[in-house]
Amino acid sequence: MPMHLSGDLTMGTLLEHYPGARRALFSAFHIGGCQSCSYELTDTLASVCEKNEIDMNDALICLSKSQAHDMEMLISPCELNELLASNQEFIFLDTRTREEFEATSIRSSELMTQERQTEIFADKNQDQKIILIDHQGRNVLDHCAWFRGHGLKNTLGVDGGIDRYAREVDTSIPRYRLELD
Questions:
Q1: Rounded CA gap, 74 and 53, in Å?
Q2: Any idea of the CA torsion for 154, 159, 163, 167, to the nearest 10 degrees?
């Protein structure tokens, strides 16, 4: 459940709960795209708006609309499970790295490679249902937007990724954490 939007939220908290906020703020106000309009994760939304001379209400409206749009592109892990159990035909692509995919994956998913993406884009079957999954749902909205931008409007992403699916639906799927340098 998304938290209430307010100017008191830090950018870190905002981006954690509203993954599309970065894209929305950049698209609407050119916030966060370069050094002159960048922000720290500890900055509040109010301070970022003030620094960039953006009306707070305009920013909140933009973020609310963006979140509503993003939610339309997501399915829950339970909805994915129902889809997997049905006889409905769809393409199920895992957008994680090959190493992550080989370590753990959901049955019937296939690794999204450049070749597979090119094949799907060339097919031009705009009605084909495509489900995308990543690790924790942090990148899946960007991937969905990319597919939809290429005319594949029936593309959806799994909210929370394989990690949430493993917690809520199939606990036999190993969970993992990426160690970053």
A1: 32
A2: -120
Place of tokens 């050119």: 30
CA angle at 118 for the pair 114 and 122, rounded to the nearest 5°:
175
Are the C-beta atoms of residues 20 and 73 closer than 8 Å to each other?
no
| H or E stretch at 75 | strand 74-75
Range of the domain at 119: 74-168
Taking the C-alpha atoms of residue 168 and residue 93, their distance in angstroms, rounded to an integer, is 20
> Model's pTM, two decimal places?
0.79
For residue 76, CA distances in Å to 104, 139, 174 come to 19, 15, 19
Q: Tens digit of pLDDT for each residue in 131-176?
A: 999 999 888 998 998 999 899 999 999 999 999 999 999 999 999 8
Whether residue 89 sits in one domain with residue 64: no
Do 159 and 137 form a contact (C-beta atoms < 8 A)? Answer: yes
